[in-house]
Specification:
Elements (H helix, E strand, L loop, with lengths): L1 H15 L8 H19 L5 H31 L1
Length: about 80
C-alpha cells in the first residue's frame, strides 16, 4: 500500500519536472496494476485445505460435545 502511494506521489511530482523521456509511464503503470492485483489476491485468498480440515474437525468435536450435553440433560430430566 505504501509503495503504491509513493509511486503515485512520485508520478505526480514527475509531471511537474522537466526530465528526459527515459521513464516509460505505460510500463510503470502496468507494473503498478500488477502489484496491486497481487496484493488484492493475497488479501482475498481462500483458506487452505488444512484450515478447512481443521474447521471440520472442530465442528465434529463441537457436535459430539453438544450431543453429550443433551444426553446429560435428558438423564437429569428423567430423574425428576
Amino acid at each position: 500500500m505504501y509503495g503504491s502511494l509513493f509511486y503515485v506521489l512520485a508520478y505526480i511530482v514527475s509531471l511537474g519536472c522537466e526530465i528526459e523521456n527515459r521513464v516509460k509511464v505505460g510500463l510503470m503503470n502496468w507494473h503498478l496494476i500488477e502489484i496491486n492485483t497481487f496484493v488484492l489476491f493475497l488479501t482475498l485468498a481462500p483458506s487452505s485445505y488444512s484450515d478447512f480440515l481443521e474447521k471440520q474437525k472442530q465442528i465434529q468435536e463441537n457436535e459430539s460435545v453438544i450431543e453429550g450435553l443433551i444426553d446429560r440433560i435428558e438423564e437429569l430430566e428423567s430423574k425428576l
